[in-house]
Design brief:
Elements lengths: L3 H8 L6 E5 L5 H9 L4 E6 L2 H13 L6 E5 L14 E7 L1 H10 L9 E6 L3 H10 L2 E11 L2 E10 L12 H6 L1 H6 L2 H23 L5 H18 L1
Parallel strand pairs: 1-2, 1-4, 2-3, 4-5
Antiparallel strand pairs: 5-7, 6-7
The chain binds S-adenosylmethionine.
S-adenosylmethionine binds next to strand 2 and strand 4.
GO molecular function, one term: tRNA (adenine(22)-N1)-methyltransferase activity
InterPro entries: SAM-dependent_MTases_sf, TrmK
Pfam family, one: TrmK
């Protein structure tokens, strides 16, 4: 069985999808999806040889090599813009890395209807990239597993590229527009923890010999948003 985290990611992949899972490691996600949906097809991308070999082994074990293609390469260089992919999954990495993978392969995303991202930290930078690149956040989840809280972001392409009047604000980029509307138990737990952490960071910055005033102002604004949402 798959982790709650990856099962939640999988739940956002539409039936019959042709998806790329970048940074697939053991390829557990594509194997799970293709075992439960015999019309789905996938590409598992890996930059490192160890995980690349593990991915091939898992795919062979489940006899899925006819529907899952395992490819070695950096980020989106393993996919082509005209092979018919409709979903892109990037899970289990930092948000900054996810953002740079998306930005580095922008030309591959012309027809990518849905991007599902699960940043371990810094989800804000992923949401910002999505907002600035014709994707709108259609759904989000926040799940807890083994003491960790994970955010999952589902973004769909704005096909006509028209500007949207409900583009997320900076506050929504931080908390997630959907997560902020729902304010679940996990959401409160995460932001209580982040609030206390940021408070300590600000205190340390204020005590430092060289004060970074701009950064302190930005952090204090975020801290006040956290206080608002925690009320
Ligand atoms: N996606 C899986 C999950 O969520 O459980 C695996 C997460 S694992 C922590 C991150 C994987 O991404 C590693 O196997 C690593 O080799 C791979 N990776 C890191 N940077 C990458 C890149 N630029 N392109 C492709 N794979 C990458």
């Amino acid at each position: 069985t798959l982790s709650t985290r990856l099962a939640t990611v999988a739940s956002y992949i539409k039936k019959g999808a042709f998806f790329a899972d970048i940074g697939s490691d053991h390829a557990y996600l594509p194997c799970y999806v293709c075992m439960h949906d015999d019309t789905a097809r996938a590409i598992a991308g890996e930059v490192n040889k160890g995980p690349f070999k593990s991915a091939i082994e898992t795919v062979d074990t489940y006899k899925l090599s006819g529907v899952i293609d395992v490819r070695l390469g950096n980020g989106l260089e393993v996919i082509s813009p005209n092979e018919g992919l409709d979903h892109l999954i990037i899970a289990g990495m930092g948000g900054t890395l996810i953002k740079s993978i998306l930005a580095g392969g922008k030309s591959k995303l012309e027809n990518m209807e849905r991007i599902i991202a699960q940043p371990n930290v810094d989800a804000k930078s992923v949401r910002k990239w999505l907002r600035d690149n014709h994707y709108f956040i259609s759904d989000e989840s926040i799940v807890k597993e083994n003491g960790h809280i994970y955010e999952i972001i589902v973004a769909d392409k704005i096909m006509n590229h028209l500007p949207v009047d409900n583009a997320p604000t900076d506050k929504e980029l931080l908390f997630g527009p959907v997560l902020l509307r729902n304010k679940s138990k996990n959401f409160f737990e995460k932001w209580k923890h982040e609030h206390d952490k940021l408070q300590r960071v600000i205190n340390q910055m204020k005590n430092a010999k060289v004060e970074n005033k701009e950064k302190i102002i930005q952090f204090e604004e975020e801290l006040s948003w956290m206080e608002e949402v925690l009320q």
